Amino acid sequence: MRRLGFGLVTMSRGGPGRDAEGNPEASLEDRQRAIELNAAWDRTRRGEAPAPVRATLTTYPEGSVGDGYQRAMALRKAERLKKGIIWTSEQESRDDWPRAWKWLGPAFGDCDPRTIIPEHFLRIDPRTAKAAGLVPDIERAVSTTERHRAVKVWRALWKRMAAMRYCDPGADPSLSFSNTAPNPRDAIWHRREVLIGVQRAWRMGYFGLAACMATAWDSMLSPVDVRRITPAQVRSDVGGVWFALPRAKTGKAAAATLSPWSEAVLRAYLAKLGEGVELAPNSPIFRNRSGAPYSKDTLGDDFRSVRAALDPADMRQLADMRRSGAVEGDAGGGSIADQSNKMANTVGANNRLRKTYNPTNIASVRRFDEARAIGAKLLQEKSGRPSKRLSLPDLLRRQREK
Fold first, then answer.
1. What one-character DSSP code corresponds to residue 22?
2. Distance, CA of 345 to CA of 349 (rounded, Å)
3. Phi and psi torsions of 287, nearest 5°
4. CA 370 to mean position of chain CA atoms
5. What is the 3-state secondary structure (H, E, C) of 40-59?
């Protein structure tokens, strides 16, 4: 059912009646909703209706914003399928449209788009003289980033609804105010700080986290990509060990290279892991202390514990290591093309044919690794910190001596 677009649907608390076991009885509305959902599943499995496309199983009036959203979601999926693109569950979970719809749906789902005005998004509350409407509500509840995402999706949805003749293309009410993007994160880590962080994680018993941090630093992968690395993705050449994997966000092929230091950390971790866990070829390598693969939440929780042990006021994230590697490479003279290959993104305008016939370009990735090493020394000298590199065996030796 999940593969066909169905998902869990939350009902009300039920009641006021009670069943034989004393639990609240389903309300009449919930019973009717359950019948509708069951009927939708019957129509889909019999091939009488198209499967929902990660939209919502709620039935909206024809011509409403919700109706337009469901059609737009179906068209977006059709466009991907036409190109032979099938999203993974990870890519679907990163889709901004369903996330924005959690705000847009309750506010506008059953409305005629032509009845929506700018003041629904932003106005002055006459009682408090403060900003009110959907935009400030999102910012107060979550963040400016969430507001920017929701309005951005709304504007894209309006264009699609206009193409469906639900509304006037030039009458988007959200165009009456700006949707300024939030300032991007600019926090960075220095190489020496990461070495110390890996050491502290190891000492605290977070062996999987220590190896994950070391791999994330050298590979410049995002946290979601690094925690999904499997033994089947390991490769090696004259330059050392690396992992070949597709990025979760874009699906682009990435070459996650390691340095002798991060490889030593990884080997030490695997030796520890071998005492009680046997890794299957396609199972995630990095595990938390319970032996379970790291999830988004457990990885973040463990990382924050180690970070707090080093500096309770530090708010930097594991994801900031990806940016930090780009800063190192830039300081060392790495080219934009090599950075693009290293990060498996389109930060550089690379030749399309070269990407087609040499998607990972390991030589380019290695060049950027060399530029990072040069940049790290320059940044350490600039900050007045020693440039000595400590290997994991040396750190562990110091631990035993203490």
1. S
2. 10
3. -125, 150
4. 28
5. HHHHHHCCCCCCCCCCCCCC
